[in-house]
Design brief:
By secondary structure, the chain is an alpha/beta fold. The chain has helices at about 15-25, 45-50, 55-60, 65-70, 95-100, 110-115, 120-125, 145-150, 170-180, 200-215, 230-240, 245-270, and strands at about 1-10, 30-35, 60-65, 75-80, 90, 130-135, 155. Helices cover about 40% and strands about 10% of the residues. Strands 3-2-1-6-4-7-5 form a 7-stranded parallel β-sheet.
Length: about 300
């Protein structure tokens, strides 16, 4: 279904560029401006900057003098109006209307979406129009009543009841997004390829490494391991480790064992017997029987006069 975005009496060049950007990211490219404030708005610097690279949309956009010219070839017209009107086409949320328009399984049927007695909209929804146009009014005043009356439906974007003011380009973005989603949407592109998972042998080898490291630091008692290692096995299975992550965990286990080794050796060195003296007996350890050092100053003695 061909889709066209029509901006009526747009006064800010930046909004034209931002609207072009909003359309392009959703895969739409037909933009028509009706009597904008600037005749050269498509070439203005602010327009180009705000388009952020959507230059092809600006290049193909057309400027026309009347709404009739802008709607040429369109068979289903959607006004965008935040202000409720006592008279005119029925007001619907974009998603509900799009679901009915495309014959989807929306929450409301075609008959429910059409206002009572509005056989024109009901017939139009059932016919699946070939050309659809979204109409947006000026930033300051919105759409004029006579333009809204020409449309089949008035789309109202659900907002906070206490603050419903939307920037023109933001409204274009929301409508474009909902319409693209109704048409099937775009797939999400992963930022990085899916990681390769480590095989069972790699996980088992890493668990063996960790079992030794945990014993080295005294966290695991090899004589009574209980269910520690099976629980760790289940934890790592849920984590779905990659080969690179296996290497990291092995590095951690290695560092744990290396850190624990000096602490285990030091007490053994302190508890080792002193070396034998070449002259027989035990080499002095530098401490006298009282616990003092050989080089320590002699203890003071009191002498009675």
């Amino acid at each position: 279904m061909h889709t066209r975005f029509v901006l009526i009496n747009t006064s800010h060049a930046g909004n034209v560029g931002a609207a072009a950007r909003a359309m392009k990211v959703m895969g739409f490219g037909d933009l028509v401006l009706v009597a904008p404030r600037w005749d050269n708005v498509l070439r203005r610097e602010e327009t180009i900057q705000r388009s952020s690279g959507a230059l092809d949309v600006l290049k193909n956009a057309r400027i026309v003098a009347t709404l009739d010219e802008a709607l040429d070839g369109m068979t289903h017209l959607c006004a965008t109006a935040m202000t409720p009107r006592d008279f005119g086409p029925p007001t619907r949320s974009p998603r509900e209307h799009f679901a009915a328009l495309l014959g989807g399984t929306g929450s409301l049927s075609i008959q429910e979406l059409a206002a009572p007695g509005d056989r024109g909209l009901e017939a139009d929804l059932a016919a699946k129009p070939e050309g659809l146009a979204f109409l947006f009014g000026s930033e300051r005043f919105g759409m004029q009543n006579e333009d809204v009356y020409r449309c089949h439906v008035a789309l109202s974007i659900p907002t906070d009841p206490n603050f419903g003011s939307l920037n023109l380009a933001a409204a274009v973005q929301l409508i474009a997004y909902d319409w693209r989603e109704a048409l099937g949407g775009f797939g999400v592109h992963a930022a990085a390829p899916e990681p390769r998972l480590a095989d069972a042998a790699a996980v088992a080898g890493m668990l063996g490494h960790w079992e030794q490291a945990l014993a080295d630091i005294g966290f695991l008692d090899p004589a009574s391991p209980k269910k520690l290692m099976p629980r760790l096995n289940q934890l790592f299975n849920r984590a779905q480790l990659s080969p690179e992550e296996i290497h990291i965990l092995r590095g951690i286990a290695k560092a744990m064992s290396q850190k624990a080794l000096p602490a285990a050796v030091a007490p053994e060195r302190r508890a080792a017997p002193s070396e034998a003296s070449p002259l027989g007996g035990q080499r002095s350890t530098g401490t006298d029987e009282r616990g003092g050092s050989e080089n320590s100053a002699p203890a003071e003695t009191s002498v009675k006069p």
